[in-house]
Amino acid sequence: MRTNNLILQFTSKFVFFIIFFFAVHIFFAGHYTPGGGFVGGLLMSSALVLLVIAYDLKTVQMILPVNYMYMTAIGLILALGTAAFPMFVGKPFFTHFYDYFHLPLIGKTSLHTAALFDLGVFLVVVGVTMTIIQTIGEDE
């Protein structure tokens, strides 16, 4: 039975974006401070679960038509590919590369392959968590 909880639906629209942007911040801050792909992925999943609680699973699936199994597979390929790539250039497994670049609006910054690995972990965590939530939510 579905109840119409107007207050939860109204506030979840704002809280979703707060959690979303905090997840992005934690993801990017994770290379130098605590956080990264795993914690950012859990925060993103919690934002999506908030939408599922406020509305229902079918509505969230219509708004965000994402196949989370594919997201998990893409994340796993990205994480493993980033970790295994150095072996093909004569370096040990999990060796990360970085360089400094001058980016518009940001200035001089370092770009790391560790960020690609974290992106893979992020996608795996969101994909697996949301697959579990959808599987539980579809059972009657």
UniProtKB/TrEMBL annotation:
Localization annotation: Cell membrane
Gene Ontology CC: one annotated term: plasma membrane
Coiled coil (UniProt feature): none
Record's signal peptide: none
InterPro entries given in the database record: CPA3_antiporter_subunitB, MnhB
Recorded family membership: Belongs to the CPA3 antiporters (TC 2.A.63) subunit B family.
Topology relative to the membrane: Multi-pass membrane protein
Name the UniProt record assigns to this protein: Monovalent cation/H+ antiporter subunit B
Record-annotated Na+/H+ antiporter MnhB subunit-related protein domain positions: 7-131
Spans traversing the lipid bilayer: 12-32, 38-57, 69-89, 109-133
Organism (species): Lysinibacillus odysseyi 34hs-1 = NBRC 100172
Superkingdom as given in the UniProt entry: Bacteria
Keywords for the protein's UniProt record, in alphabetical order: Cell membrane, Membrane, Transmembrane, Transmembrane helix
